[in-house]
Amino acid sequence: MSDVQEAVDQLLDVNLQEDQRSMQGSESDPRSESEGLRVTIGATVPTGFEQTAADEVREKLGSSCKISKDRGKIYFSISVESLAQVHCLRSVDNLFVVVQEFNDYQFKETKEEVLKDFEELAGKLSWSEPLNVWKINTSFKKKKTKRKKISQNSSKEKADNGQGDRLDEKDVKKESTENVLDSHILDYYENPAIKEEISTLVGDDLASCKDENDESWKGEVNPGVVKFRVTCNRAGEKHCFTSNEAARDFGGSVQDHFKWKADMTNFDVEVLLNIHDSEVIVGIALTEESLHRRNITHFGPTTLRSTLAYGMLRLCAPQPTDIIVDPMCGTGAIPIEGATEWSNCFHLAGDNNPLAVNRAANNISSLLTKNQMKESKLSYGLPIDAIQWDICNLPLRTGSVDVIVTDMPFGKRMGSKKKNWNLYPACLREMSRVCRPGTGRAVLLTQDKKCFAKALSGMGHVWRKVHTVWVNIGGLHAAVYLLRRTPQAFVQSSEQDGERTPW
Known about the structure:
Layout: H1 3-13, H2 16-23, H3 30-33, E1 38-44, H4 50-61, E2 65-67, E3 73-79, H5 83-86, E4 94-102, H6 111-121, H7 128-138, H8 152-161, H9 169-174, H10 176-181, H11 183-186, E5 196-200, H12 212-221, E6 227-235, H13 243-258, E7 261-262, E8 269-276, E9 279-285, H14 306-315, E10 323-326, H15 333-341, E11 346-351, H16 354-375, E12 384-388, E13 403-407, H17 417-434, E14 441-446, H18 449-457, E15 463-473, E16 476-485, H19 494-499
Parallel strand pairs: 6-7, 6-8, 10-11, 10-13, 11-12, 13-14
Antiparallel strand pairs: 1-3, 1-4, 2-3, 4-9, 5-6, 8-9, 14-16, 15-16
Helix pairs in contact: 6-13, 14-15, 17-18
């Protein structure tokens, strides 16, 4: 049985009894009411990998996808019965059900008129079906976790227990304070839109619900009160209002319509207002925590999102029995994601830093323990291993690797731009040695595009660039390069031998 099918069965079966008990006091069951209903689901994905996510949706759900002009979002239609399977997608970060979509919203000329429209918008929308979907979603999603404010201590703990790529212990302690300020870089794609304002409404009004239908499901979710928040994501240059103003006035409209209590942290319902130029989409969030938060328990300064790791792996189209290597693995996000999704391949994680290798090994161990607990039996392990090595002198046979997938140092949090000018050519040269001529592939992520282009220009006889995906990494413009190994055999010259110094 596949991991996806297992997850679906657990989500639906394990929580069915709880869901039935919670429904006993109500007059109608939202599952029966929504049977056969088709809804539009929106998903945020790593920017640049929208097509990859759309392909996965078509492959696993059989649904066609619309890629939003607002980068980092896709939309697809499903039956409510497939909702649990949507949560098992590997390429999506967050999910929401679409309440209504305005492809060409006509904004008024003045700010006052626009905000007045937002004040009246909630009463004009059809909320019943999306709210039923949201209610069904709460019956099988993970137990709500308490949201904790990020403190300096927690940031320091992440720094000390995370990926020590190319840093010794002193360096990690030194940068623990910087990690608090640069937390957006620690977790790639936390804010995927390049020029996007994100604001959340906070309020404190409370009143009784005037809609009897709303009361029935309201009492089941949180007896006595439903708490909500409105989050506005705005991108575009021609708006006469801010995201904060839109969230405030639309949030007031939602509060007046449902008589809910607004609460930024301990909310039951999160209403989304996504505005991109003239496109306006209202939705209800189906995930409390991003789906990319999986696999990794020991984090580091440049831990890669699992969803981005999946996208990079999918680019290289792994085939059964492929040997897939991440020579600069850090915490092991890429090979761990690969071993989880492509278990018919063998994945090798390596790094020059012993701290990073130790964290990768700990992440592998944690995943094995998790799998054993889920299956309630002894696991035979995963097709993955971790090793410490020098990227410029890999202990691998020439032509023994099918695929190389790695996140190269940007020269910002790891290494330096100056070191990259020597490191990148040496890396590409050693990768060309171990990669199988003719069929070998490499997927490399870097923000130091100028240095990479220079290094690749001197390696045209062994590497051919096939495709480039432009991505946004925590506000940094980066690129994912898909390279193919040419049929030319690797020849190690004496001059190059002299340059093979440990990194």
